[in-house]
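INTERNAL AUDIT FORM
Audit reference: QA-55
Scope: verify that the stored structure record matches its stored sequence.
Auditor: D.O.
Record contents follow.
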Amino acid sequence: MLFMLIVKASENSEGGNLPSPELIEAMTRYNEELVKAGVRVMAKGLQPSSNGIRISFPKPGEKPVVTDGPFTGSKELIAGFILIDVQSREEAIEWAMRMPDPQGHGEGQIELRQVFE
């Protein structure tokens, strides 16, 4: 079963602030555990929404609208993701619970979503 651990953005990540060396080390250890267990498919961090592009489809059948970032509402934005392949929903939750606070400073939030297969 594929699950995506979606790391939600924060004011720090949207500001382009890099994590502390301690958090980078903790996340590196966590990712190494995922790889060693054979469950990590992919993991990537995303640049702030100020470098993003949003494409919307406000009128059916008409040309899409392109909007350059930054976008508001950092809690709704994504700062990164990890794709894992596990045996069950419970195992996905266990792995998500082991992740260090991905934003540090008590700002981290992870959304766990199963991928259609």
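Auditor finding: record pair retrieved intact. The CA atoms of residues 101 and 108 lie 5 Å apart.
Action required: none
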